[in-house]
Amino acid sequence: VYDGKWKMECKDGKGIMKYHNGEYQGEFSKNKMHGKGTYSYASGDILKSIGEWKEGKKFGFFEDVVRVSKQVYYDIDEVRSDSKVKRETPSDDEDTDINASPPRRSKRRNV
Q1: Which segments carry the region annotation Disordered (predicted)?
Q2: Measured in whole angstroms, how far is the alpha carbon of residue 32 from the centre of its chain?
Q3: CB neighbours (10 Å) of residue 63?
Q4: CB 3.0 to 4.6 Å from 22: which of 41, 57, 74, 110, for a disulfide?
């Protein structure tokens, strides 16, 4: 089930797509996940893009939100490369916008 923007009978722009195994909320182009977006799996795992989705495939860095210290990189063929990163948490008196995009990181692959 899709709720979002359409262009010439195609999903295009921001939207939410519900699948049998979870939900994608983010950008679409020509009916495919394309651009920034977050995929929430039915299992409770959440994959937030730091890179982007390209024509329905994961590409770039993705943050595993449930396992806060885990970051995953996908190349254009969706080949996965795991790396551990230290994530800073804001202080209690700091305002945090939970909808803000994370800062861009270099697309470096750890092997």
Answers
A1: 81-111
A2: 14
A3: 22
A4: 41
Residue 79 carries which DSSP code?
-
Both tokens of 5, joined, read 């923007």
Token pair of 9, please? 């009978």
Q: What does the alpha-carbon distance between residue 29 and residue 49 come to, in Å, rounded to a whole number? A: 16
What rounded mean pLDDT belongs to the chain?
74
Spatial distance between the Cα atoms of 63 and 111, rounded to a whole number of angstroms: 17
Residue with tokens 């921001």: 14
Minimum mean pLDDT among 4-13, 22-31, 62-71, 102-111: which range?
A: 102-111
- With tokens 């470096």, the residue in question is 108
Residue 62 bridge partners (DSSP): 49, 72
| Half-sphere CA count of 81, side-chain side, radius 13 A | 13
In the predicted model, what is the mean pLDDT of residues 6-19? 96
How many other C-beta atoms lie within 10 A of the C-beta of residue 86? 5
User: Which among 100, 60, 98, 95 is positioned nearest to 76, based on CA atoms?
Assistant: 60
- Which residue has better confidence, 35 or 72? 35
